[in-house]
Amino acid sequence: MSTKQSRTLRPASTRSISRRGFNRALVAGAATAAMGPFVIARAQSPVTVKLGHTQPLTGPSAAYGIRARDGALVAVEEIVKMGGFADEKGNRYVFEMSSDDMANDPKQAVTLFRQHATDPKVVASLGPTNSVGFLPAIPIAAQLGCLLIGNGSGAPVKAWNDWAYRVNTVSSSAIPVLMRTFVKIENLKRLAVIYDQTQDAQKGDAELARSLAGELGYEVTAFEAIRANDQDFSPQLAKIKATRPDGIFVACATGDGVKVVTQLRTFAMEQPLATGFGSFLDPVYWDGTAGNVKGGYTWIAQDVNAATGTLKDWIEAYNKRFELEATAFSTYGYDSVWTVAEGIRRAGGPDRGAVKEVLKTLRFETRIGTSVTFKNPPGGDNLTPSVTVLQVTGRNESRTVKA
Hints:
The chain is α/β, with parallel strands linked by helices. The protein has two domains: 19-169 and 306-369, Rossmann fold, CATH 3.40.50.2300; 171-300 and 389-400, 3-Layer(aba) Sandwich (Rossmann fold). The chain is 39% helix and 18% strand. The chain is built from 13 helices and 16 strands. The protein has helices spanning 19-28, 62-81, 106-117, 131-144, 171-186, 200-211, 213-216, 234-242, 254-266, 283-288, 309-321, 328-347, 352-359, and strands at residues 47-55, 85-86, 92-97, 100-101, 122-126, 147-150, 164-166, 190-196, 219-226, 247-251, 273-274, 297-300, 363-365, 371-373, 388-394, 397-400. The strands form four sheets. Strands 1, 2, 3, 4, 5, 6 and 7 form a seven-stranded mixed beta sheet that branches. Helix 2 (62-81) crosses helix 12. The two termini are 41 Å apart.
């Protein structure tokens, strides 16, 4: 699939969306007039509204970015199939979405966002999933008056503005739940941490794990930094092994995490592992480590492996289409598109400022059951995310665990 692509969305009405109707449309792949708040009104010519979308489609975070892109693409094409969506005034719209590769480069992410922001037809820019690209775009969003909708970044944000939002669960909500569960089940007293210092989200996870030590009753025996795309982690792993931890927190994007875990096991370290962002559930992680993430702990918002109802149908359709199987990042991409659509619907049009005012106090549930709530200011994080801790039991297999 090209890293540069666009798709067009078409419109619909203002009643609440029927979950049952959505299931029928998803399975049948056909438009239906019962999908409501987005009722079909074919008599009008649709207005084209652009969405920018920037992701790391190459590099160590590509497994996240590709899935968010694909999830967003599903939402864009889904709206076409259902005949599109309409705002509360009855005006119809179509989306045209770009898909741009930031290549894990923060300067490239900012450049791409600026390109989106200077196009008056772009109502919002989605992504990136990695914080190294999302964080530097936040102040630019306010400067240029363009909405930024994150769909995966989880690092702490030092200064928000009301032009920037994230639909996904973030580390500050999830890591305390993960670590509390990990420590209790494994009876941890000594924890080692290895993290990518070039990735803001991974560094943030590592610092959260360290900061919780006193509260949860463990000692951090080693806190070792690596850099994205490094190949040999022998010095860091030798230091970790010498401290004899009884658990290891791996804060690395999938591409580098695969190398870290593989070398860690080569060093004969069999301690239980934990990581953030659902990473160990990724089949890429399982395959790349030959199953050496088995028994590892992670957190997610949507449990794609134990999904039921609408979400299960969505995942099955997604997995039949795309090479990389669905993870939570796929749902984040999907939810980000529908969040913008809901903003346009309630605002009565795609004016950036009007949509921003809607998002500042938005509360709604996406079509796959994700709860999205914003109160910005003080910040653009989703205030009603779900957090589930899972332990990996096999490829695409896990079990829910609680402290």
